[in-house]
Amino acid sequence: MPVNKQSGSRMRVTEVEEFVRNPPPGFSVETLGSGYRVRCNEEKSLVLIDDFQSCGKKIVFHNSLGRKVKMHNLWEYSSTRKSLLSKEIYLLISACEEQSSVSNKKAARELSLEKQYVVCIDGNEPFTKWQLERGMDGTISSVAGESYRVDIDLTEEMESWAAKNLISDDLMKVKPVWRDASFTLKYYSDALFDFPHWLGFSKRIFKLRMT
User: Fold this and answer.
1) Is residue 22 part of a domain?
2) Dihedral in degrees, nearest 10, Cα atoms 8, 116, 64, 190
3) What is the pLDDT of residue 193?
C-alpha cells in the first residue's frame, strides 16, 4: 500500500515507488533503460538526493546537490542559504529493520532495508524557516574564516511520523531505524590556520521539528 501522508502541513512523506509512479506537481519522470531520471522545477524545489537503487532500478534526480552540500566561498554559502529558506527541500530517507546476528561469539548489529521515502519539507514555511535560520546562525560562527560541517537532523520527526502512520496502521510491524534522516552543509574555508576544523571541533548538528 503506498504511503503518502503528512506530518501537520510542514512535511510530506511518499514511498519512492509512488513518487516515481505519480510525481508531485513540478516533477517529471523519464524512463531509461536501467532506471529513471527525475526532473524538477528548480525555482521551487531544492533536491538533496544522491543517486540510488530501488527495486533493481537506478534513480537519478537531475541537478540534485546531493545529501552533502559542499560550499567553497561566501557566494555559494549565500546561494545555498537562500534556497534552503525559500524552497521545498526533498530528501531520501530509508526505514530499516534492526537485526542481530552472532558471528565469532560476538553479537553484530545489522540493518535490513525495508522502505525508502522521499521526504519534503517547506523551507519557506514560517516555523521551519525560523528553525533553519536559527540553527544556521547558531552553529556557523564565522563562515569567512572557519571550515565547518553542519548536520540538519530529522530523525526524531521521522520516528514521530512512523508511530502515527506506519506502526499504528500495521504497515510496519516493528519500530524502524531511520537511515540518512539528515542532510549536511559543508563549508571549506581557505584560511591558512583553521585549527577548529583540523581538530574536529567544527562538526555541529541541529534538529528540525515539524510539530
Assistant:
1) yes
2) 90
3) 45
